[in-house]
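Annex B. Sample input.
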Amino acid sequence: MKALFIINDAPYGSEKAYNALRIANQLNKEHADAEVRIFLIADGANCAIAGQNTPNGYYNIERMLKLSLNNGAKVKICGSCAEARGLKSLPLMEGAEISSLAELTNWVVDSDKVLTF
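Annex B, continued. Sample output.
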């Protein structure tokens, strides 16, 4: 099974990115044969900024994305969204790749499940 998680919201301020990654990581944990794909679009592109520093005891989206990547997930970032937010000049987390709307649409067509947050 191929599962696509589309994250639209910023990493902090709401818990949408957090909940999307909780589900993605649980899917990786319980169903190793599932292919997890995560596409960061709109303010979700901010989830891939490297060096996030959160208070102790508070979730950290960068660490959660790293766990996803370490478990075999693919993480892509909308290029035009990253550019519009000035992210192309910032260091992005290792393993996340700048992508395009064309690749997202290919993932949508090729996925068995699409979840949006």
